[in-house]
Amino acid sequence: MAPRKRDADATRSRLLSIATRVFAERGFDGARVDEIATKAGINKRMIYAYFDDKDGLYREVLAGYFAKIVELSQAGEAASPSPGEQAAVIVRRYFDFLAEHPRLVRLLAWEALSHDARARRVLVDSAAAGLEALRAVIRRGVAAGEFRADLDEKKTLSSVNLLVLGFFQQQRILEELWGQDLSQPRARQAVLAHLLDLVFHGVAAPARR
């Protein structure tokens, strides 16, 4: 690879890293291209050269995260022949991914507060690909009789996402309510086990014979 190509790749990577941090700290609306360029140690014009505009830079930050989520989801599909077990693997990997990437959690929290439909459109388009694998598993589960025939795909996907993402967004509050450190791996795995049980078994008591 030519030195110029290596330099360009390194500059682009540095820009994305700095932009991820700034977007997570300030949200899309609060982030400034000038600040990102200054922190990255480059001329602002380089951002426009690589990403066209602030929207393009933001889109690349989200796309990078969701590309990894897609990979995790697709790997989960091959984990077992059972749609139920496949779905559990995908949810588990998504949970672990969010635990390892708190800046994505913050980005999604900012989006929930934003009134800017344009920025939200970027998120929705990126997230759709990440959810497709789980949607396919749900369809197979319904066809195989593992899942309820009247299951609403969109609402199910959204509800699972709210449960998993909501834990990380509310973690500090939950720590106060539950009186425990939820950053510890054992505590987080206990929460994950609870969420999976809730999703796949609900809260109804087993039917009496």
CATH topology, anyone? Tetracycline Repressor, domain 2
Helix/strand order, N-terminal first: HHHHHHHHHH
CATH superfamily label:
Tetracycline Repressor, domain 2
Helix vs. strand class: mainly alpha
By CATH reckoning, the class would read Mainly Alpha
Count helical runs: 10
Number of strands: 0
Share of residues in helices: over 70%
Q: pLDDT below 50 for ≥5 consecutive residues: which ranges?
A: none
Q: Please report the distance between the alpha carbons of the first and last residues.
A: 70 Å
How many whole angstroms does the radius of gyration measure? 20 Å
Largest sheet: none
**What is the domain total for the residues?**
1
* Overall form: globular
Residue-averaged pLDDT: 87
Instruction: State which percent range the strand residues make up.
Output: under 5%
What is the strand and helix layout of this fold?
Layout: H1 3-30, H2 33-40, H3 45-51, H4 54-77, H5 83-100, H6 102-113, H7 117-144, H8 153-169, H9 171-178, H10 185-201
Helix pairs in contact: 1-2, 1-4, 1-6, 3-4, 4-5, 4-7, 5-7, 5-8
